[in-house]
Design goal:
heterodimer, A: alpha/beta, Rossmann fold, Alpha-Beta Plaits, six-stranded mixed sheet, four-stranded antiparallel sheet, 11 helices, B: alpha/beta, 2 domains, 12 helices, 13 strands, globular
Chain lengths: 316, 309
């Protein structure tokens, strides 16, 4: 069953169309990413899914509840955590939890057992008396997540949950999210930090109110970069770009710090062929090559390619 | 040996209760780029502020082109882009640059300003109020303001926080252009993928370097081979490959992502063979598997894990 089902969802503000007929479905228990630059329409879409904003047209249901017909029912079934989360820094961990339990109208009888469950999940058992303001960044973030999970929501919305957090803290955060998903909750992440998107099983990319790409991270990389991607360390890299661009087998070359990234046309065969193509092209143009290494394209590479193609009116 | 833009020896700085930097050494050659990466509170911002003379070290010393950073000789050569860059929202792009030019005592800045607006692709927006520019444009304008006095060293503190991917990439392309023109660039960033762009990287944690070197050197120092396993049920696969049995078969760690699991092992090929057979036994399909080059993030995670248990 789909925990979130969206069909032709539209939101207009006057003449401006913020969300322009998007459709997608998120199966129960999965982790789904909604990506896009600032102004792409992500926040407007999420606000509709959370029952905070009425759609202009189209339909959306969250946890089986129609967002237009029963926005209050939707609000009760979801949890929401933003990177700009609002904890009370001068309250302790347990006081924050009790406060949010009150907001979610969790009965007194259940608060302590729910608090215990959540504290164990977020790894803060034993820290109940610490002031939230004195916790390290990664702990604060887990506490904010815990507060959003107190009422055991069926669907959890995360907005840039780990932006600016160090990799180890981020890893721990996602381990918790995966536990939440394993227990049957569905997780929707909105972000423009594409390293966060790597943790999602399926991602959709929004641009100018529309969905311009959809798939698994690996699927999107393979689809948009069917050829090899290489990192090249050579002399005078800026000038070497022109030499690579002149070779028809190299689709795209760009500077990456003092090195180059080259995306090759598909069908160049195995690894050695691809590397040899680049070495030969540079050697022929008189550039000394120190190293050529195959690298995986990042989701950011995919994102930029999709956006620039849609800006040119390319395939959508 | 090439001329040094920066030399820091035993650099230490503490605040009330925290020792932000506990004596670090590093050198940056003229024209090179250097990234400081690390978690929140690692000491990155303190290091940048010591380099631009906003803070004085408790001990140790730092020199910028042979002078103390607060000395006029060094100051004139420094450009600084702070974390919360301060533009004047009610001034236009043009007026902001003019303001910074005047602060630096520049009189005939008109052509320099045109050049900077061109370089940051802001010329079409020069008359727009800074408050009406997008986040990415404001950030480029702040960069233009930091460059107005033609510094030889650019210091940046988390310059891309809150910036979307398209603007972020454009920003780093602009910075690459500055490097190519011979400018020395030092930046603090929490993003390891950004650090990959730099000539050398210092990985900071709790005021000390965990590692220092070029991205290639740091990766060569990573003890494990990374095997990427693309599969549908990544969370379940990661659990299976984190078992006692998997550890016995040489799989040191398994990490789930959305549609893949990364495993780390001394012998990548052997670990891959083990993983494929263990998953086949469980009836789990593997879409593909391959040995992958380690990323700076892999290296950093290992070093951080090593110090924090």
């Amino acid at each position: 069953m789909d925990a979130i089902a969206v069909e032709g969802l539209v939101k207009r503000f006057g003449t401006f169309v913020a969300v322009d007929g998007i459709s997608f479905a998120v199966p129960e228990g999965s982790v789904f990413g909604l990506l896009g630059a600032n102004g792409a329409g992500k926040s407007t879409a999420i606000r509709m899914l959370c029952g905070l904003l009425e759609p202009s047209s189209g339909r959306a249901s969250v946890a089986g509840i129609d967002v237009a017909a029963d926005p209050e029912g939707v609000k009760r079934s979801i949890g929401y955590m933003s990177q700009r989360f609002s904890l009370y820094e001068d309250l302790t961990v347990i006081e924050n939890i009790r406060f949010f339990a009150g907001l979610y109208a969790i009965s007194r009888r259940k608060v302590e057992t729910e608090a215990e469950r959540v504290l164990a999940l977020i790894g803060l058992a034993g820290r109940e008396g610490s002031l939230a303001g004195e916790l390290p960044g990664g702990f604060k973030q887990r506490l904010a997540l815990g507060c959003a999970l107190l009422h055991a929501p069926k669907v959890l919305f995360l907005d840039e949950p780990t932006a600016g957090v160090d990799p180890l803290a981020r890893r721990r955060f996602w381990d918790i999210i995966y536990e939440v998903a394993d227990s049957g909750s569905t997780v929707l992440v909105t972000t423009h930090y594409l390293d966060e998107a790597e943790y999602c099983a399926t991602v959709t990319l929004m641009h100018a109110g529309r969905i311009v790409a959809k798939g698994s991270p690996a699927g999107l990389k393979a689809e948009r970069f069917p050829g090899a991607m290489l990192e090249v360390d050579c002399d005078r890299p800026a000038e070497a770009i022109a030499a690579l661009a002149a070779d028809g087998r190299i689709e795209e070359a760009s500077l990456f710090g003092s090195r180059l990234h080259a995306a090759l046309a598909p069908g160049l065969g195995d690894r050695e062929d691809a590397e040899e193509t680049v070495r030969a092209a540079l050697a022929a143009a008189g550039f000394a090559v120190r190293s050529v290494e195959r690298i995986p394209p990042s989701l950011e590479d995919v994102f930029i390619r999709v956006i620039s193609e849609s800006a040119k009116g390319g395939p959508l | 040996m090439a001329e040094l833009a920066i030399e820091a020896i035993g650099l230490a700085k503490g605040f009330k209760e925290v020792e932000a930097l506990k004596g670090v050494d590093f050198r940056v050659e003229r024209g090179a780029s250097f990234a400081l990466v690390g978690p929140d509170g690692a000491g990155k911002t303190t290091a940048i502020r010591l380099l631009c003379g906003l803070l004085k070290p408790d001990s140790g010393r730092v020199s910028v082109f042979g002078a103390g950073p607060a000395e006029p000789a060094a100051k004139a050569k420094l450009g600084y882009l702070s974390q919360r860059f301060s533009l004047y929202g009610d001034l236009s792009a043009d007026e902001n640059i003019a303001f910074f030019a005047e602060i630096h005592g520049r009189r005939n800045y008109a052509s320099r300003r045109d050049e900077l607006l061109e370089f940051t692709r802001l010329s079409p927006f020069r008359d727009r109020l800074a408050s009406k520019l997008s986040g990415g444009m404001r950030q480029k304008l702040a960069l233009a303001c930091a460059l107005v006095h033609e510094p030889e060293l650019l210091l940046m503190d988390e310059p891309t926080t809150g910036v979307d991917p398209v603007s972020r990439r454009e920003f780093w392309e602009i910075v690459a252009g500055l490097s190519r023109g011979g400018m020395t660039v030092v930046a603090a960033t929490p993003y390891l993928d950004e650090a990959e762009r730099f000539d050398s990287v210092g990985m900071l944690d709790e005021g000390r370097f965990l590692a220092l070197g070029s991205p290639r050197q740091l990766k060569e120092g990573f003890g494990w081979t990374v095997v990427e396993i693309a599969c549908a049920d990544a969370r379940r696969v990661a659990r299976i490959l984190s078992s006692e049995e998997a550890r016995g078969a040489g799989v040191a760690a398994a990490q789930a992502f959305g549609d893949r699991v990364d495993i780390f092992a001394g012998d990548g090929e052997a670990a891959r063979r083990y993983a494929l057979s263990a998953l086949a036994r469980e009836g789990l399909a593997v879409a593909s598997s391959r040995i992958a080059a380690p990323s700076l993030e892999n290296v950093f995670m290992q070093l951080l894990g090593g110090t924090k248990g």
